[in-house]
Design a protein that fits this description.
By secondary structure, the protein is α+β, with helices and mostly antiparallel strands. It has four helices and three strands; from the N terminus they run αββααβα. A three-stranded mixed beta sheet has the order 1-2-3, with helices on one face.
């Protein structure tokens, strides 16, 4: 069964689209490599949590500070683009899911490599035992 989109879901999608364009304009002014990964709007439409990704995780705190400083300007851009009685307050949150994904991927690769080494070593042991027993 398909879930119906709520008003907050539709507003979140619109905010994400508008913020993407507005942040691109900020990037031209020095805010570098920021992408909006998700927007969640509360049911009462008073707050929007904006999840962002940055190319260099070391700069995430600086980027969050810059976005917070420009939140009024970003809200104004949203107000000009969408029809809403009130534009939600913007809270910017760093989305570390990409780093967590990379870390998990490296753990999986390490586990695979370790298993392969163990199975190769066990195969070599078995081959040497078979060779010693046939002499």
């Amino acid at each position: 069964m398909r879930r119906e989109l709520t008003r907050s879901d539709r507003l979140a999608a619109q905010i994400r689209r508008v913020l993407g364009a507005a942040i691109r304009q900020l990037q031209e002014e020095g805010l570098m490599h920021v992408a909006v990964s998700d927007v969640e709007v509360t049911r009462d439409l008073s707050l929007a949590r904006v999840y962002i990704n940055v190319l260099d995780p070391a700069t995430s705190q600086r980027v969050l500070k810059q976005l917070k400083e420009n939140s009024g300007r970003l809200r104004k851009a949203i107000a000009q683009e969408i029809r809403a009685r009130r534009v939600p307050e913007l809270r910017f949150i760093y989305d570390d899911s990409l780093e967590r994904g990379k870390h998990l991927e490296s753990l999986i690769e390490y586990a695979r490599a370790t298993d392969k080494k163990r199975s190769d070593a066990a195969g070599d042991e078995q081959a040497s035992e078979d060779g010693a027993g046939s002499e």
